[in-house]
Amino acid sequence: MDDRLYAPATERNRDAILAVLKDELRSPGTVLEIASGTGEHGAYFAPQLPDYFWQPSDPNEESRRSITAWRSHVNAPNLGEAIAIDVTRSDWVESVPEFPQPVVAIAAINLIHISPWEATLGLFAGAKQLLSVDGLIYLYGAYKRGGQHTAPSNEAFDASLQARNPAWGVRNLEDVTAVAEAEQFRLDRIVEMPSNNLSVCFRAIA
Question: How many angstroms separate the CA atoms of 38 and 68, rounded?
């Protein structure tokens, strides 16, 4: 029985995301993926990023089974076993094992809007403990800018998220940036992506 789960958006966004990652990853090491979901992104990225160890994680057991199934399917030596990480927990960094190479980047694809605000706070607070100066936090997803949605489709998406869970929703990019700056990260680059999404790159400054 195949435990692989599928997210239709992955095939639409994975090449665009990979292109940004190839530009932004600067030195070999471990890329820790937060909220890996189905595991499809890691299974696609790892074989194409041979200088990096891609470490998937998710707090959901069903998602971790899917990640494991995708890992078996692609059989990439630089794709790690799924681990349980919940960034809404203040002690989540303690769940991170020792890796053969240091963590040089943290990737969170479609996390910020499909999680409570505490996940954003916890992500940056924990990342500060894991990343050295110039370490990368890569975020992908829909954002408001200046308090306004960037497209009608994003406004509808925001409403659907909040209908599912009032704690979810499309965040204001300036609010996310303020959290990053408070944890000693600077906004380094914003890349316009397909379907009115953004790639947002932060760098550790201390």
Answer: 9
Q: Give the chain's length.
A: 206
Condensed to tens digits (0 to 9), the pLDDT of residues 63-84 reads 999 999 999 999 999 999 999 9
Amino acid at 20: V
* Sign of the CA dihedral with 52 first, then 45, 88, and 196 last: positive
Q: What are phi and psi of 176, to 5 degrees?
A: -65, -40
How far from 48 is each of 21, 45, 69, 202, CA to CA, in Å? 11, 5, 19, 22
The predicted model gives 91-97 an average pLDDT of 93
pLDDT of res. 162: 97
Phi and psi at residue 21, to the nearest 5°: -60, -40
Residue 91, classed as helix, strand or coil, is coil
Mean pLDDT of the chain: 97
